[in-house]
Structure formats: structure tokens, C-alpha cells
Amino acid sequence: MQLAMIGLGKMGGNMTERLMRKGHSVVAFDRSVEALAKYEKLGATPADNLMKLVQALEAPRVIWIMVPAGDPVDQTIATLRPLLAEGDIIIDGGNSNFHDTIRRGRELAESKIDFIDAGTSGGVWGLENGYCLMVGGRSSAVRHCEPIFTALAPEDGYAHVGPTGAGHYVKMVHNGIEYGMLQAYAEGYEILHASKTFPELDLEQIGAVWQHGSVVRSWLNELAVRAFARDKTLADIKGWVADSGEGRWTVQEAIDLDVPAPVITLSLQTRFRSRQADSFGAKVIAALRNEFGGHAVKHT
């Protein structure tokens, strides 16, 4: 099947390569000349602008967008929309806010262009292992693109979860769950690392044994074992943790629905704390303890 891929970063590039390995024909675009050249060598048809990309596709055109969420998606769609025709399909495989996805779907429907949202999980391992795909969109459009989805996904790793917006909604909650899981592993390993009773605990060894029969075994824990194998104390890594936005959106959705989500919410707040070299809030607490109880404070 022929399709276009806009965005050849870590995800889009690997997805392009996997699609070509599975026999699909890909027309590729990226602002990076080097990225475009790399995938041209692997068999992709390069396009140095979006007009050429559209012209290289047979109708009905299928265009997968793999760019950062927000304005980049809107700008890409705004450029593509006048170049496309009735029956063409745009797929957004990034981590877009589902509210934006619903809006974009309605706008494109006015031009009778289908908009599919494909929540995509798999990271840099997806090239070899496949990507878990949570897809939202009109049934006929999804069916047309199904050969793409089944090529990208491992067996049973693709599902059509609902109308346009549903794919990104499910992926948003998926990432919220991921926040909580990561935080639980982080706290457990930190307790082990800080132990004064057993200061020589080998975190790589412990993580590895947990992978065999333990209820906490998982792919995330497997990755923790790999990280500890490279650096047992993670000395070369700064404890600064970013967030992609989907944790925030999950927490906001929980608030809007009156659903308690304390673990996901706290894990998000902990990421914010990781970015502070020195917490002003902690300074306030130290100062108050000194004021009411005469407790000692440490000075800079």
C-alpha cells in the first residue's frame, strides 16, 4: 500500500522503515535534509515540500503526520488541506490532545477528508517489536488503512477503539497510567538504593530476578534492569523529568469527570518537583518549623 509520512524523527523514521520492510511504499518528508536522505537510501520516495508529497501519491491519498502536538499539527493540516481531495485520509500518530483531534476531524469533514487518530506506543523499540496502535476514526477510513496498522503493530497490537478522537483519548489515559507505573518503580528502587541496613544491594540483580515470576515483572522493569546494567547508580543521569502533556490532560480529564486519580496526579506533580534545583515550598516549610518549634535550618 502507498502512503506518505510527514516527520522522520525517532518515531516517524522507524515507522517508515518498518512499513517499507513490510512491503509498503512510502513517500517521505522532513525538514531535515539528512533525515530525508537517510530514508531515501532505505527505499522511501523523498519529497522536499508538501505539495510534491501530495502529487506523488495516488488517490485516495493516505498521509501520516508524525510531528509534535499542537500548532505543528494544525500548520501541517492547513498546508495539506487545499492540496487534498474528497476521500483522502490524514492520520495523526502523535500525542495530540483529543479535544484538538475532534475539532480537526470536524473541520476536515467539511472538505470530505477523513481524519484518523492513531495513538502510538512503542518508542524506539517499535521498529523491531512493533507499535501498539489505538485508532480512532470513521470505520470505512480505518478499514482502508488497516494494512498500514497491521504492518506497524505486533500481533493483536492494533485496535479500532472508536470515532475520531477516541484513539488519542485512549493513548492519553495509557500515558497517565505509565506515569504512575514509572513513579512506583522509581520509589521502590530509590528505597533499595538508600538502604543503610543493606547498603550493597545490587539493583540490576534485584530487577532481573523480579522479571521471573514476580507480580511486578514488566517491560518497564526490564528496561530498568538494562539501565542499571550500564550504570548501577545512574550517576551520569540528572534527575530532571519532562512530561509530554498527556499526564496533565489525564489529570484534567479525571477532574472533569469527578474520577479520583491520586496516583497519576501525584506522579505528575513529582515530575514538576524534579525540575526544581531548590524548592521554595520546602524553604517555607523549613522556615515555619524554625519559627514555631525552633527546629534547625540549613543555610546556603
What is the gist of this entry?
With 300 residues, the chain is α/β, with parallel strands linked by helices. Helix content is 51%, strand content 13%.
Describe the model:
By secondary structure, the protein is α/β, with parallel strands linked by helices. The protein is built from 13 helices and eight strands. The protein has an eight-stranded mixed beta sheet, with helices on both faces. Helix 5 links the parallel strand 5 (89-92) and strand 6. It is globular. The N and C termini lie far apart (63 Å).
SSE blueprint and pairings:
Elements: E1 2-6, H1 10-21, E2 25-29, H2 33-41, E3 45-46, H3 50-55, E4 62-65, H4 71-80, E5 89-92, H5 98-109, E6 114-121, H6 126-129, E7 132-136, H7 139-152, E8 158-162, H8 166-194, H9 203-210, H10 219-230, H11 246-256, H12 262-274, H13 280-293
Parallel strand pairs: 1-2, 1-4, 2-3, 4-5, 5-6, 7-8
Antiparallel strand pairs: 6-7
Helix pairs in contact: 8-11, 8-12, 9-10
